[in-house]
Design goal:
Elements lengths: L11 E3 L41 E3 L3 E2 L8 E9 L5 E8 L4 E7 L10 E3 L6 E9 L5 E8 L6 E8 L10 E6 L1 E7 L6 E15 L10 E6 L13 E6 L7 E6 L10 E4 L18 E4 L6 E7 L9 E7 L10 E2 L9 E8 L5 E7 L6 E7 L10 E2 L17 E5 L2 E11 L1 E9 L6
Antiparallel strand pairs: 1-2, 3-28, 4-5, 5-6, 6-7, 8-9, 9-10, 10-11, 12-13, 13-14, 15-16, 16-17, 18-19, 19-20, 20-21, 22-23, 23-24, 24-25, 26-27, 27-28
């Protein structure tokens, strides 16, 4: 089991308040979401609801990867489930590259021995994804890349005993790139999506043993997100392709049995810095409250209303995806610097929690913001990491992860405080509570 590394600082906290990055008054209306932006950053005294919220205090950061050397770990994903269950996955290069995974049964206080999905017949493996269903089954996924120009395979293993043992690894789909997973809110239901021309999404009702038909997603070359709910709403946002650059959205109202026609929420997601170091791609994250009615989508890009560099943006819906705000800027840094690799979580009360990689201090740090109503802004941004390292690398991964588990907020990221990349975790107890 991993144990917390020594803390560099005491836990960082901010009071539940009403300040942060803002939208204009136009952002208050849940419009259809057809383009434009709201907000230019900065503080606003009336962000969030009038009800007081618990203070946010992230505890000591915990290193999850259990290698003793200096192999690089990156590209981390996380999913939280019932009863304190959490699973993380990442690309691990401590020897040959694998997709590595670790689980927790106590909300991230302690972590299991790392397990992996290795390369079997391809060139290499990567792009790990994870899910937990409503019955507590863990799903670990990985893309096995075959020869250049050859479609690869999505490989998956499952655990039905809280991570104590794992099934054999098996191929569940041919795909050229980037699988993603989403656990249903009932036992045995899991969704998997992938990129391609066309990309697709499909559903299993029996813990991934058999799969239903594929729903086409069109020509996509970047990641999807999958958000499920207790009411049957399933939200699947994604960047359509690099040339057209729309934020496309697919929704199901019957737990993935059928889907509405896809819609473009905004026609242009902004400019992405493919050649930056670290790089930044049009990866989208999404989350919803348990009912699926309050939904948030996030990504990072250069857009009007930002600082002419990478900023974190958010779309928000309070009617299950019928209507959406225009983009709202989340980060509040006063001077230009890059913010990217954003992910989002929505708690039981409809409050929105966002985490991202932040270079405002010239170092690789993870920051966080919270809002009871994003159309009125966010609380002041808060640093999650209690240590920092160099950002002078060409790859910090393409995303990190944030999740809500009961009253707590969980964040996982790639950390460089030990020079090479590691996977770190922190928890803010009570930050999502009443």
């Amino acid at each position: 089991m991993s144990v917390p590394d020594a803390a560099v600082d005491a836990p960082r906290d901010v009071p539940g308040g009403r300040a942060g990055a803002t939208g204009t008054d136009a952002g208050r209306d849940l419009a259809s979401g057809t383009g434009g932006t709201t907000g230019a950053g900065g503080a606003r005294p009336d962000a969030g609801s009038d009800a007081p919220m618990a203070r946010v205090a992230f505890g000591t950061n915990i290193r999850i990867n259990d290698d003793t050397g200096n192999g690089n770990q990156s590209e981390v994903a996380m999913a939280a489930g019932p009863g304190g269950l959490v699973i993380t996955g990442w690309m691990d290069s401590r020897s040959t590259r694998t997709c590595a995974f670790s689980t927790s049964t106590d909300g991230g206080l302690t972590w299991s021995r790392n397990v992996s999905i290795p390369n079997v017949s391809g060139m290499f493996v990567g792009d790990p994804a994870v899910a937990v269903d409503g019955g507590g089954t863990f799903y670990a996924l990985c893309e096995e890349y075959l020869n250049v120009g050859t479609t690869g395979n999505i490989r998956m293993m499952t655990s039905s005993d809280r991570g104590a043992t794992w099934s054999a690894v098996r191929t569940i789909q041919s795909a050229p790139d980037k699988p993603w997973g989403g656990g249903g809110t009932t036992d045995g239901v899991v969704f998997v999506s992938w990129l391609g021309n066309p990309g697709g999404i499909k559903r299993s009702l029996d813990h991934g043993l058999t799969w239903g038909p594929v729903q086409s997603l069109g020509n996509i070359i970047h990641g999807t997100a999958i958000t499920t709910s207790t009411t049957g709403l399933v939200h699947v946002p994604y960047n359509l392709d690099s040339n057209r650059n729309q934020l496309r959205y697919l929704r199901s109202k019957d737990n993935g049995a059928t889907y509405d026609a896809p819609r473009d929420l905004i026609p242009d997601m902004g400019t992405f810095c493919f050649s930056c170091s670290p790089r930044q791609h049009p990866i989208v994250g999404s989350s919803a409250d348990p009912t699926g009615r309050t939904v948030a989508i996030t990504w990072a890009s250069r857009m009007p209303g930002g600082q002419a560099d990478d900023d974190v943006w958010l779309l928000y819906s309070r009617d299950g995806g019928d209507t959406w705000t225009q983009p709202i800027r989340v980060n509040d840094n006063p001077t230009a610097s890059r913010q990217f690799e954003s992910w989002v979580a929505v708690d039981n009360y409809g409050r929105v929690h966002v985490a991202w990689t932040d270079l405002r201090n010239g170092m690789n740090e993870t920051w966080y913001a919270r809002s009871a109503d994003p159309t009125r802004g966010f609380e002041p941004n808060l640093q999650v990491t209690d240590g920092r390292g160099s950002a002078a690398t060409d790859f910090l991964g393409d995303y990190k992860s944030i999740a809500v588990q009961g009253p707590d907020v969980l964040v996982v990221w790639q950390d460089t405080r030990r020079d090479s990349g590691d996977i770190y975790f922190a928890r803010a107890a009570g930050a999502a509570g009443p």
